[in-house]
Specification:
The structure is a single chain. It is built from 11 helices and 16 strands. It is α+β, with helices and mostly antiparallel strands. It has a domain of about 300 residues: RlpA-like domain (Barwin-like endoglucanases). Strand 9 and strand 10 form a beta hairpin. The radius of gyration is 56 Å and the shape is globular.
Length: about 450
């Protein structure tokens, strides 16, 4: 690295200010006399002062100004607010007691029953006597009216009407929310075609009760659970659910076939109805009736069609369901399996072709005068006044009927299934029946 240096030696030259002073003094001395010596001294002094101020040195440059860093906005804290008074302590409000459910039965007079005076009550008499044959021996309150019924002239409509008004009290049936209307559906006794042996068109089995199905009457253990039953099968020492419809379809109950029929859809609807007749290939006609059930809850496949958006509620009927299944055979079993409930049958003889099958009361059902009810709410076997309409023309259907049957889909207070009987007309009406209606159950006066 090369360092450059500068010569800093000072010359002895006379400063210009000194030369000027000398010249000025010489001139002065040459032009003045001794009398002007004092003035001369003053002049010299002035000259010296002038020389000192002739060439002033420049002032040193000012130091660089360093600006302070920028200052951000000054946040002025808000003025303190006066403290809010503490919130009052809430006074605990006791929760409202849940509304008491409406009693299911409210006593009324016969004058309240719509159409009571117009019904031909003589038609109910055989069905009423069927109920008496069972109830008189089961419940004390039925002994008196059933004994009095033996002296009534069944051919006299006024006498029959007077009998009911004397020994019974109508009770309006209401739902828990207080409403007095509900769904009234219909059922019928079906006709199927079958054989005692599998072969040809007869490929769908109707099963008898399997040996491993266990039914527990819960009411015999817990009185509060009267009319409730638990069904299943044993796995070791544990009671487990019995096979569902889909399980039975995948693993048939071999050896438990009662009969074989020619149509799986007819067999399904036979389960929904609970009973029917089967005309065998040899010409004999037998009746099959409800024997037991696998314990799974019933689900109407009509509701599934609505949930899937396939049909609207107004479009659902036995007829429309049959038509859809016929048009979609590949989905038939899928749809039938929606209802996991499965019915097992027993064979019965058809002693009287005009009589209906036996219902839950174990008496023959009377077409047009027997209904299925929810036995957990209404007494099985009791007379019931029904007010609804017919499915085709909306004509009033107001008559005295007997609650002699039950059904897997019949749940609730104002809910009934009207038995139309046997034959094509009964089948057609039952398939369309889904009307709104009201019920009044007639109870012996001694029970009120």
């Amino acid at each position: 690295m090369v360092h450059q240096t500068m010569n800093t030696s000072r010359n002895s030259a006379t400063p210009a200010s000194t030369i000027k002073i000398h010249i000025f003094v010489s001139i002065v001395f040459m032009t003045t006399t001794r009398r002007s010596v004092p003035s001369l001294a003053a002049l010299v002094a002035l000259a010296l002062l002038s020389a000192c101020s002739t060439t002033p040195q420049p002032p040193p440059p000012p130091p660089p100004v360093t600006m302070p860093p920028p200052v951000g906005p000054v946040v002025v804290p808000p003025a303190p607010q006066p403290a809010e008074p503490p919130a009052p302590v809430p006074v605990p409000v006791p929760p409202e007691a849940p509304a008491e459910p409406t009693p299911p039965l409210t006593p009324v007079s016969f004058a309240v029953l719509p159409g009571w005076q117009q019904d031909d009550v003589r038609q109910i008499w055989p069905a009423f006597q069927q109920s008496c044959s069972v109830l008189a021996s089961r419940a004390a309150e039925w002994k008196t009216p059933c004994a009095a019924a033996r002296s009534v002239d069944a051919r006299d409509g006024a006498a029959v009407r007077r009998f009911f008004e004397t020994y019974f009290v109508p009770n309006q049936v209401r739902n828990p929310d207080g409403t007095a209307t509900g769904m009234i559906t219909g059922y019928y006794e079906a006709m199927l075609y079958g054989s005692r042996k599998r072969g040809g068109a007869y490929q769908t089995p109707l099963y008898r009760v399997p040996d491993d199905l266990i039914t527990v009457d819960l009411g015999s253990i817990y009185p509060d659970l009267k009319n409730r039953r638990l069904r299943g099968r044993l796995s070791g020492k544990t009671l487990v659910p019995y096979q569902s419809r889909a399980d039975i379809d995948r693993a048939p109950l071999s050896g438990k076939e009662l009969l074989w029929v020619n149509d799986p859809v007819d067999a399904f609807f036979l389960e929904v109805q609970g009973s029917g007749r089967v005309q065998l290939d040899g010409g004999e006609t037998v009746r099959v009736g409800y024997a037991d059930q696998n314990g799974h809850p019933y689900k109407a496949i009509g509701r599934w069609f609505v949930e899937q958006g396939i049909m609207t509620p107004d479009q659902v009927s036995a007829q429309s369901i049959r038509a859809w299944l016929a048009a979609n055979p590949s989905r038939r079993q899928e749809v039938l399996n929606v209802n996991a409930s499965y019915i097992f049958f027993t064979e019965q003889k058809v002693s009287d072709p005009n009589a209906g099958p036996r219902g839950a009361l174990n008496v023959p059902l009377t077409p047009g005068r027997s209904i299925a009810i929810d036995r957990s709410i209404l007494p099985l076997g009791a007379p019931v006044w029904l007010s609804t309409t017919m499915p085709k023309d909306g004509a009033p259907l107001q008559r005295l009927v007997m609650g002699q049957d039950v059904g897997g889909a019949i749940r609730g207070a104002v809910r009934a299934d009207f038995f139309f009987g046997f034959g094509p007309e009964a089948t057609d009406n039952a398939g369309l029946m889904k009307q709104q209606g009201s019920l009044w159950v007639l109870l012996p006066k001694s029970t009120n």
